[in-house]
Write a structure and sequence with these properties.
Blueprint (H helix, E strand, L loop, with lengths): L19 H26 L2 H17 L8 H17 L9 H15 L5 H21 L2 H13 L3 H8 L3 H15 L9 H17 L3 H7 L9
């Protein structure tokens, strides 16, 4: 005999594993930001494989995070990616030979050409500058840092560098050359966080406004008498 409406029994849907919905949400959030995270990691590292590794590590950390306590998941993922990529840059295992030079000039040019960048682009730009300068500060002496940043980032002539560093133009060329060679080494020294923040802010201001006064003052507080 057919069952009437009142006799029909609704069967409950199969139970899903505990935490299944939460992990689906976590994956959805991560995938929505993945392309952005890869771009950030790549701009810092200049290496596809390294960037992919960083993004994968961020995903693993995101799974283990107390996500209910995270107010802004996108900001959390961007921050995690930034810190991991910078840690890789400063690791003794990571060698960056050419990309730093190319990236420094590229960052200066792009920042100068973006009159009204998007929030996303501004974040990525800031992250890339922060990463490049962290490496330079960790591996270069003050005179080499000054010469390298101004030459490679802003196209200073050797004669201009010579005047700032109080050395000869040929010696200024030597300082830049030695800075490039030093970047190929894994040896690094600690970088004070406050000094790094000031230099990053000054670099961005110089790139955006064309006013390099603060940047030059930070890089050359005590002019060097001789090339190192």
């Amino acid at each position: 005999m057919p069952a009437t409406a009142s006799q029909t029994t609704t069967r409950p849907a199969p139970a899903r594993p505990a935490g299944h919905d939460d992990m689906d949400t976590a994956l959805g959030t991560f995938l929505a930001e993945r392309t952005r995270l890869f771009r950030i990691a790549y701009r810092i590292l200049g290496d596809v494989t390294g960037a992919e590794d960083v993004v994968q590590e961020v995903w693993l950390r995101w799974q283990l995070t107390d996500r209910a306590a995270v107010e802004n998941p996108a900001a959390f993922l961007v921050t995690a990616t930034t810190r991991l990529a910078i840690n890789v840059v400063r690791s003794a295992r990571h060698r960056r030979e050419v990309p730093v030079e190319l990236r420094l000039a590229e960052l200066g040019d792009r920042a100068a050409s973006d009159s009204a960048p998007s929030v996303e682009h501004s974040v990525e730009q800031s992250v890339a500058i922060e990463g490049a300068l962290a490496l330079l500060m960790a591996r270069l002496t003050p005179d080499r840092l000054a010469a390298y940043v101004l030459r490679k980032g802003f196209g200073y002539a050797y004669a201009e560098l010579a005047a700032l560093l109080r050395i000869s133009a040929p010696n200024a060329r030597v300082v830049v050359h030695r800075a490039q060679a030093r970047l190929e080494s894994a040896r690094e020294h600690p970088v004070p966080a406050d000094s790094h923040r000031r230099l990053t802010a000054a670099f961005r201001t110089a790139a955006h406004t064309g006013n390099l006064d603060t940047l030059v003052e930070l890089l050359t507080p005590h002019p060097v008498e001789q090339a190192a």
